[in-house]
Amino acid sequence: MKLEDIAKKVGVSRSTVSRVINNQPYVGERTRQRVLKVIEQEQFQPDPAARALVTGRNEIIGVAIPQTTNVFFGDNSYFPMLLQGIAETTIKRDYAMLLWLGHSHEERAGFSDRVSKNRQPDGLIIASVTEIDPLFSRLIDIKRTFVMVETPPRFTELVNYVTIDNIRASEQVVEHLANLGYRRIATITGQLNMGDGAERLKGYKSGLEKAGLPYDSKLVYPGQFSRDYGYNGMKHLLPFKPDAVVCGGDTVASGALEAIHEVGLKVPDDVALVGFDDLDVAVQSDPPLTTIRHSVQRVGEVAAQLLIDIIEEKVQAPHHIVLPTELVVRQSSDPNALKEVMYPVVA
Amino acid sequence: MKLEDIAKKVGVSRSTVSRVINNQPYVGERTRQRVLKVIEQEQFQPDPAARALVTGRNEIIGVAIPQTTNVFFGDNSYFPMLLQGIAETTIKRDYAMLLWLGHSHEERAGFSDRVSKNRQPDGLIIASVTEIDPLFSRLIDIKRTFVMVETPPRFTELVNYVTIDNIRASEQVVEHLANLGYRRIATITGQLNMGDGAERLKGYKSGLEKAGLPYDSKLVYPGQFSRDYGYNGMKHLLPFKPDAVVCGGDTVASGALEAIHEVGLKVPDDVALVGFDDLDVAVQSDPPLTTIRHSVQRVGEVAAQLLIDIIEEKVQAPHHIVLPTELVVRQSSDPNALKEVMYPVVA
DNA sequence: TTGTACGCGTTATCAC
DNA sequence: GTGATAACGCGTACAA
Fold first, then answer.
1. B268 preceded by a cis bond (ω within 30 of 0)
2. What are the pLDDT digits (tens) for A273-300?
């Protein structure tokens, strides 16, 4: 079935049918109805390739995640949630979503090539990009439309991005701990060549400053967003006797917790612990983790909205969006925090 | 830049350039080299839309996951791994991957519509489909090329699929427990209207039979692949005094473990516990879970290979592939099982 | 071995 | 309001 077949069936020309399909004016109401009826009858859908050839658009957005090893598998709910958010928007706006995943045993250049050479998507969302990622500069070079999740490593002003307020959130964490009387506040960071990791450290520092506490580099362990970095980081920090540890992520904190328990110390009595992201593991930990809650799903949703708006020229690029966060206090920092129920009880 | 521009630059015709690009014969070696050089210089890539219009192919495979609430977020590493496996193959075969995620607050019909009406992908992989899913029948109706992950709910013989040997695996679990002397072996199943869930129950039953143990419906709790179903299921089973529980998945088992601990019983002393899938949670549990190991990633990889082979007519449909599994014995069923090290130790 | 000419299904641009 | 016709960029028989 093609446009012309429909036209013949209705007794009008191709152009009229095309107008109806694309909701264009200059079609009589009666004609429009007759056309719509036949389209419905025949379950007709215009050929996307033919349409793309002439319009230059595919109604597809691409999503590229270069770092699967750390992000995809480490924080194992970050990624599905981001995708879910993006999907939410693509459904609403009637787009499809093309996905690229980086490979551990593949050079960055290869990934960058695959993604940037493919012209099928009308624009891209890229996440978890490090400072040195070639994809980033490449996309800028070839002037591809894209939106970053997290703050861009460079050209910050020129690039479209959606992120959460990492700096403010970390400041809040430090403030919370300082208010509870903690004085030797250490940190195990996330990956520092990524936007989120770097900003959370930045917030930790400015938080200390605002609280009037000294900054001590011995209390800073540069890590990555994974459980084993948390474990190793904590082992490293323990000799320096921190009374509280701010972690770059909840999985990091869960590793740190393991290390603390291993040496027989208690949380929060001996050491307070704070995560970031409010993943499942934060609630499932014993004790549950104080953390920063934010909606990864919402970030994905908004990033996709922004990208599509840019593609359809509804907003002007560059555009920056910073989404809010919320401090969630649990027992890992405050023994008096409200307890939450974990599972539904049997009736 | 189009085909013709390259042709002009080299001083040959469009067709010659096209032949070079598509590795066709009847091009002089000298000419071929000259063309390749200019293509390289200009970083030329043929317009995918134009190409698709004439070939009818896009080099895109679609991936559809209707059930995000349970599968996507519940078993939070199942999904990323499946995608990672599919991605592995698409990279190798030079395909791209179009992703559809179902929405909790969307009727199944809507999802089914979106996926089946989109003609961009050359074929589809569908996962986690229940018996009643309209997508399944729809795809058959419109004769779309697709490969299922898990055993299809109906028309099993006619549908392409890749799955693991769930039945044999469950039998092995029961055999293992019976050998250790357990006699009242209960089960908390996965979702029974999905292939994996149903087959694992089937294997549990035939396993009992082979072990010469009686089947008791009181010892079967029909659940879903999630932690709270495990918790509730275990609460329900406890009054019937099982001495071992076979769970439909590791997350289910981890919920069951919680319930067992809550009433002050010990694993495996009072009740043995076995999971399925060998997710991270299986190792992280205390005690670590005996489980069935299989590679979800491999399933994805093979499913994509099969699909692309079918698209390119390298194999004939329908085609069925069953991948092997491995029983991993840990402390949750056998106190004498070897202990594994969880984290790398600080140097 | 190379070039010519046509077709793929749609949208855009004109006339009517 | 409606209909003819020219693009869009590429693959491919067929002719040279």
1. yes
2. 999 999 888 998 999 999 999 999 999 9
Contacts of A45 in chain B (CB under 8 A): 117, 119
Q: What are residue A200's DSSP bridge partners?
A: none
Read off φ and ψ for residue B215, nearest 5 degrees.
-95, 130
- Residue A17's H or E segment, with its range, is helix A14-21
- B40 & B132 share domain: no
| Separation in Å, CA of A144 to nearest CA in chain B | 15
- Facing A232 at nearest CB: one of B80, B236, B346: B346
What percent of chain B clears pLDDT 70, i.e. is strictly above it?
95
Coil, strand, or helix at residue A276?
Answer: coil
Give pLDDT tens digits for B57-112.
999 999 999 876 555 555 557 888 899 999 999 999 999 999 999 877 677 788 99
Give the count of domains, chain B. 3
- Are A37 and A97 members of one domain? no
State the pairing for strand pair B60-65/B291-293. Answer: unpaired
**pTM: predicted TM-score of the whole model, two decimal places:** 0.90
CA distance A166 to chain B (A): 24
At B116, which amino acid appears? S
Q: Name the token pair of A294.
A: 């934010």
Quick one: B301 and B241 in the same domain? no
The string over A121-151, giving b where at least 16 C-beta atoms fall within 10 Å of a residue's C-beta and e elsewhere, is bbbbbbbbbbeebbbbebbeeeebebbbbbb
- Grouping H, G, I as helix, E, B as strand and the rest as coil, residue B304 is helix
Q: Is B69's Cβ below 8 Å from some Cβ in A?
A: no
| A:71-110 residues touching chain B, CB 8 A cutoff | 72-73, 76-77, 79-81, 83-84, 87-88, 91, 96-101, 103, 106
A319 shares a domain with A332: no
Q: Residue B101 region, left (φ>0) first, then alpha (ψ -120 to 50), else beta?
A: beta
Mean pLDDT of chain A: 91
**Predicted pLDDT of residue A334:** 93
- Closest nt by CA–C1' to A14: D3
DSSP category for residue B337: S
Closest Cα of chain B to A142: distance in Å?
11
Q: Are residues A311 and A331 in the same domain?
A: no
Residues A41 and A95 in one domain: no
